[in-house]
Specification:
Layout: H1 3-13, H2 24-31, E1 34-35, H3 39-47, H4 55-64, E2 68-71, E3 77-80, H5 85-99, H6 101-106, H7 111-124, E4 131-132, H8 133-142, H9 151-161, E5 165-171, E6 174-179, H10 180-183, H11 192-207, H12 212-219, H13 223-232, E7 237-242, E8 245-250, E9 263-266, H14 271-274, H15 285-291, E10 292-293, E11 296-297, E12 300-303, E13 306-316, E14 319-326, H16 332-349, E15 353-355
Helix pairs in contact: 5-11, 11-13, 12-13
Length: 356
């Protein structure tokens, strides 16, 4: 198995090269969770793996609660389905909490503080109410709970991790919060072993071939728990050793016989990036620093499974302009493939496109 074969199979398993789903929640369920702190990019990442989903459809899915947005896996937002949010929180929230411990101490936040804050938030959101962060900050202030600086962010995150709140619909461009009991009154009930199995299966089926380190990075689990999850899921996975690296993938997956000539415009934190600790399969080291700078990622142009440049969008007067920054010269056919990818993105936004 070569790097190109790994890239081809990842594209296929992530449903980038063969989108089959028709609803946002189907994509999110397949992937388990989708990184979503960049909301416009996350919507495109989901839509790109389905047929006929537009930006408006994604907004409607969040408003109706068929997908939810909350903190889990790692200390950042993810899309997750109502059916999966509870067991995934129970499994991964303690690790996110531990990662936040330094900031909790710095901001002088302890369990007694969180208990008071959660009680005030729960009261403010009773009866199916959905409120913005600013509104809830005012609620906490009236309850004599200090929210200056970064405190409000960590109080809201802790309430998410505790399974109290999650995303509501949006009010204009503002996100709202709602009680999790209102948005996901029922969910799957797994014990810890079943949760480890489910998360492992979901990850390697949708993102394989991938390594243990990749899984640890994506899931936020300890190495010991990730190993245990792989062992529990072993009946559904194939283990392959290439050089000095061990990969796992679904037993039902097979390598494409023909490489895709299509190009793809991937969003800033697309799971094709964020799903793996090692990204050498997708980009040459010489170009990696053009894409990843600290915690900041650029939107990428993918051609035959490899990154060939970056892109940015600007929306002006009812048109989306896409500017590309290519790493090298491309053939006319490759440029045509990128133009087709830009048109696909424009169809998602339901706007005409200008490619610069």
């Amino acid at each position: 198995m070569t790097s190109l074969e790994i890239a081809d199979l990842r594209l296929r398993n992530q449903r980038i090269s063969n989108p089959t789903f028709k609803q946002p929640q189907e994509v999110v369920h397949w992937l388990g969770a989708v990184q979503a702190q960049d909301y416009p990019g996350a919507k495109w990442a989901v839509a790109q793996r389905a047929l006929g989903i537009t930006d408006a459809v994604m907004d409607r899915a969040l408003a109706e609660g068929t997908i939810l947005r909350t903190h889990l896996l790692r200390p950042t937002w993810h899309f997750v389905t109502p059916a999966d949010i509870r067991w995934m929180l129970r499994l991964t929230a303690p690790r996110v909490d531990a990662a936040n411990a330094f900031m909790y101490r710095r901001l002088e936040l302890d369990n007694a503080f969180f208990k008071r804050s959660n009680a005030a938030l729960a009261k403010a959101l009773l009866g199916g109410q959905q409120r913005t962060r600013r509104e809830l900050g005012s609620v906490l202030k009236r309850a004599q709970i200090e929210v200056d600086g970064e405190r409000l962010s960590y109080l809201m995150m802790r309430a998410e991790l505790d399974g109290l709140i999650c995303s509501g619909g949006r009010q204009g461009k503002q996100f709202t919060y709602a009680l999790l009991d209102d948005r996901a009154p029922k969910g799957k009930t797994f014990d810890r072993e079943q949760s480890l199995t489910e998360l492992s299966v979901r990850y390697f089926i949708s993102r394989g071939p991938a390594s243990l380190k990749d899984f640890v990075w994506w899931s936020g689990l300890t190495t010991a728990d990730a190993k245990a999850g792989i062992e529990l899921a072993s009946s559904q996975l194939i283990r392959e050793v290439i050089g000095e690296q061990t990969y796992w993938r679904s037993r039902s997956s097979s390598y494409p016989r023909k490489r895709s000539a299509l190009a793809y415009l991937l969003s800033t934190y697309d799971e094709y990036w964020m799903g793996y600790r090692s990204r050498g399969v997708a980009v040459d080291a010489v170009h990696a620093e053009k894409i990843v700078r600290g915690d900041t990622f650029s939107s990428t142009i993918l051609l035959k499974g490899r990154v060939v440049g970056t892109w940015k969008r600007t929306i002006n007067k009812g048109t989306v302009e896409i500017q590309t920054d290519l790493f090298g010269l491309l053939s006319p056919a490759d440029k045509q493939a990128i133009a087709a990818a830009a048109e696909q993105y424009a169809q998602f936004l339901e706007l005409p496109v200008a490619l610069a």
